[in-house]
Amino acid sequence: MKTVSWHGVYPAVTTQFHDDQSLDLSATAKHLDTLLGAGMDGLIMLGTVGENCSLEYQEKLNVLKMTVEHVAGRVPVLTGVAECTTALTCRFAADARKIGVDGLMVLPAMVYKSDPRETIAHFRAVAAATDVPIMVYNNPVSYGVDITPAMFAELADAKTIVAIKESSENVRRITDLKNLHGDRFILFCGVDDLVLESIVLGAVGWISGLVNAFPDESRRLWDLASAGKYEEALRIYRWYTPLLHLDTHVKLVQYIKLVSKECGHGSEMVRQPRLPIAGKEREEILSLVRRAKETRL
User: Fold this and answer.
1) Residue 280 bears catalytic tag
2) Could you tell me if residue 201 is inside a domain?
3) What CA–CA distance (Å, rounded) separates 213 from 211?
């Protein structure tokens, strides 16, 4: 397995659809160009925001093939891996490796809420089945399975597991992971409205949803905070936070796509059972993003 040094801003890239909900690879590629033009350090395809669980198996592979070819090695390309069984997770990891992804962002098995013993067995099985570097995606809020800092001790000897996307919404976890495991795992913040706190505590990367809509501001926030220019970073963070809160809502995919469309970055079309935001809820989100655009720093 090659050595990895993942760091910086990694968009959780939206997957674009036509009006009939069919996959729009050309629009997805165009959005990739926007993100790369803003200086992103890597790309996460088929994450939660990328609607992984709403795509058919072959569609996922089609997205990855297009992305790997389009990016052509300019930045690392990681794929979300979110399947219902450990065997299917290992199969998808193998197929993604053939396509040429640089890493796997692996979730616990979907639907069934595994206990700690089962969760560890799942990740160990996937780690043993591939030589592609793995980022463990811990999001108990959305997926109901918590991989605690202590549990990572049982994964530390799995050489392919190199990073953690920490999305528990408990920023204390960054310190606990550092105290327990030192530099064994590369730590990424996975919650948009905790990014500044996470940088201060030791996260070296940020997997973001709202970066799809505001790539330049996200890049600037990260660069200022990483350079220790906290006063300047805080000004942007306070302006940005009302939007960043959208990343923690059950409708984060619809919200992020609507905000992105309002900013000129892609379509708001989602795949059912999700539906585009409507009515008063839509007006509230549009009011929020328009106010942000008027006051952007």
Assistant:
1) no
2) yes
3) 5
pLDDT band for position 297 (50/70/90)?
confident
Please give the residue range of the domain that contains residue 57. 8-238
**Considering its fold, how many domains does the chain have in total?**
1
Q: Which of 10, 137, 143, 240 is catalytic?
A: 137
- Concatenating the DSSP letter of every residue in the chain gives -------EEEEBPPPPB-TTS-B-HHHHHHHHHHHHHTT-S-EEESSTTTTGGGS-HHHHHHHHHHHHHHHTTSS-EEEEE--SSHHHHHHHHHHHHHHT-SEEEEPPPSSS---HHHHHHHHHHHHHH--S-EEEEE-HHHHS----TGGGGGTTT-TTEEEEEE-SS-THHHHHHHHHHTTSSEEEE--GGGHHHHHHHT--EEEESGGGT-HHHHHHHHHHHHTT-HHHHHHHHHHHHHHHGGGGSTTHHHHHHHHHHHTTSS-----TTS----HHHHHHHHHHHHHHHHH--
On whether residue 46 sits in a domain, the answer given is: yes
Does this model's pTM top 0.85? My answer is: yes
Structural contact between residues 51 and 271, judged by C-beta atoms closer than 8 angstroms? yes
pLDDT tens digits for 174-228? 999 999 999 999 999 999 999 999 999 999 999 999 999 999 999 999 999 999 9
Active site residue 137: yes
- Is residue 24 within 8 Å of residue 16, measured between CB atoms? yes
Q: Residue 145: inside a domain, yes or no?
A: yes
The CATH number linked to 191 is 3.20.20.70
**The two three-digit tokens of residue 13, written as one number:** 């890239």
Is 85 within a domain? yes
Q: pLDDT tens, 225-257?
A: 999 999 999 999 999 999 999 999 999 999 999
Q: 10, 143, 165, 240: which is the annotated catalytic residue?
A: 165
